[in-house]
Design brief:
alpha/beta, Trna Endonuclease, Chain: A, domain 1, 5 strands, rod-shaped
Length: 295
């Protein structure tokens, strides 16, 4: 059976869901059938009202569906953002795990290094203990050495005193021989005639202070007078020559009206140019022990 519907009604029916649209078509067919069977106008109005209510319900359904679709879009977007954030968190977690692995490896290396340092420290402490023990031994040895050194110093002091005494004795023996032999040697070499004897005595210096002169005497030559000042040294060096000049000759300058005639006697000189050095300082002659007879 063919049912006639208006264009407007047909457009609205196209927007209704298929199942509801089939129901409406069924109702319209029923209406058409009833109309042909003398359906009243009131029934038609009632049917039209039902159709409008159904259309309104359909519209609300469509609006609700649109809202649901929009909400679904929002939820989908939120889901995508959540997934992206989860991916970022997963990547961050992977980086964190990698960093933790790196830190764990670094910690392991640090622990290994600390163990090496601890072992080195133990070796150092053992070495220090050995060194301290050795130092203690050395300190004890040093104390013994110092004690021995003090003994040697005391013995050396005694030896020096003995040698000094011996040197003085040797010097006096040499001077004693010279006192007898020098008058003839001085006359023979310099033309000096010694007045009386050469002696060893204390005489006042230029300031009147008494000082020992080991060889002292007066002599003359062609009317000119001299004071002979001499000293004996077992070994003669430049320093001893200088010491004789400064401590004896210079102190006596001005103490006599006569010219000082300084001489030195010795067994030997310790330097090859001592004689030249002595002459430059004013020493007239260095006499050697072999020039003096033994008796």
């Amino acid at each position: 059976m063919v049912m006639r519907v208006s264009v407007n009604l047909a457009r609205k029916l196209e927007k209704i869901e298929p199942q509801l649209r089939e129901v409406l078509f069924a109702i319209l067919e029923e209406i058409e059938k009833q109309r042909k069977e003398n359906v009243t106008r009131e029934d038609l109005k009632e049917l039209t009202k039902i159709v409008k209510e159904l259309a309104t319900a359909q519209k609300k359904s469509e609006e609700r569906m649109a809202a649901l679709e929009e909400r679904m879009e929002e939820l989908a977007a939120a889901q995508r953002r959540t997934e992206e954030r989860v991916e970022e968190l997963a990547a961050a977690q992977r980086r964190t795990e990698e960093r933790v692995e790196e830190l764990a490896a670094a910690q392991k290396r640090t622990e290994e290094r600390m163990e090496e340092l601890a072992a080195a420290q133990r070796r150092t402490e053992e070495r220090m203990a050995t060194l301290e023990e050795r130092m203690e031994e050395l300190a004890a040895a040093q104390r013994r050495t110092e004690e021995e050194l003090q003994k040697l110093i005391q013995e050396h002091r005694k030896t020096r005193e003995q040698v000094g005494g011996l040197s003085i004795t040797v010097g006096y023996i040499l001077e004693d021989r010279a006192l007898k032999s020098l008058p003839s040697l001085l006359e023979e070499e310099f033309g000096l005639k010694v007045e009386g004897k050469l002696v060893r005595r204390f005489i006042p210096d230029a300031r009147g202070e008494k000082m020992e002169v080991n060889i002292f005497g007066k002599a003359s030559k062609e009317g000119e007078r001299f004071v002979i000042i001499g000293e004996g040294k077992a070994q003669l060096s430049k320093n001893r020559v200088k010491e004789f000049i400064n401590k004896k000759v210079k102190r006596l300058q001005g103490a006599f009206s006569e010219e000082i005639f300084p001489i030195l006697i010795t067994y030997m000189t310790t330097q090859p140019d001592v004689e030249e050095y002595a002459r430059n300082l004013g020493i007239k002659r260095i006499f050697y022990s072999y020039e003096f007879p033994l008796a």
